[in-house]
Each structure stands twice: as structure tokens, then as C-alpha cells.
Design brief:
alpha+beta, seven-stranded mixed sheet, 2 helices, binds 8-OXO-guanosine-5'-triphosphate
Length: about 130
Amino acid sequence: MMSAPILVVAGVLTDGDKILITQRFDNEGGLWEFPGGKVEQGESEPGALVRELWEELGIKVKVGEYLTETLHHYPAKSILLKSYRCELVEGDIALHCHQAKAWITPSESDAYTFSDADKPLVELLKNK
Ligand SMILES: Nc1nc2c([nH]c(=O)n2[C@@H]2O[C@H](COP(=O)(O)OP(=O)(O)OP(=O)(O)O)[C@@H](O)[C@H]2O)c(=O)[nH]1
């Protein structure tokens, strides 16, 4: 039986026409994604994003527009990925959990290999 999907939030940190993408370490697949992570019990989705972007990047963010959700089945698990725009409020980005970051316009995203669950979000951002 398929277990319930894991709720994951992704933050699209936006600065003008650029968005921030982050790359997992090679031993975690080396794919590009958006900073974020699992929503913990009792946490709101924006609350989880504020916590995750603080833990992963050392920045304080304001969570803005809800973007989309994608239910994706990986071989070992299913995730429900929900995305929100975020705006930097305070701090300088430091990479605590990723090997690289890039500020790109969505039109440049074809040069990066994203996690499968992120592909619909990336397409949506190209058309926004
Ligand atoms: N953060 C994030 N995770 C994503 C994205 N797309 C995607 O498939 N995932 C998957 O969703 C899951 C989120 O896990 P995570 O490791 O980021 O979350 P977390 O920080 O709460 O994890 P932890 O259990 O290691 O503390 C991972 O399996 C990750 O590969 C994305 O854009 N951002």
C-alpha cells in the first residue's frame, strides 16, 4: 500500500526578476531545487518555510504568494510539494545544507537539472 505523501514546502525567494535555486550535495543526487523541507506536526506551511530558510540559508524571510502544489511519486516515497514566493527580510545567504546556489531568471532554468517534483513549478514560474 502506498503511504501518505510527505508534505514539503518550497520557497521561491524572489528578487526582482531573479529567483534563488539551490543544489543538493552530490551524495544526495546533486539536483537543483528550492530551499525548504518537510512541514512538521503543528506547523503552518509559511511557518515551516520561515524555519527551513533560517536553518538552511541563515536568512529571515517573509512568505508571500502561494504558487502551486505538485503530488509526485518517487520510487521510495510520495511528496506533496507546495510552493510559495518568499522575500528576503534580513541576513546574508549561507549554504548550510546545499553545495551551490544560483540566482536565475526562470527563462534560464533549462540549464539546471531539477528534482522531478519541481518541474511543474519551474514551468509555472517561466510563465509568470
Ligand atoms: N526542500 C525541498 N525538497 C524537495 C524539493 N523537491 C523535492 O522533490 N524535494 C524532496 O522533498 C523532501 C524534503 O526533504 P528535506 O530533506 O528537504 O526536508 P527536511 O529538511 O525537513 O528533512 P530532514 O528529514 O532531513 O530534516 C526530500 O526528499 C527532497 O528531495 C524542493 O524543491 N525543495
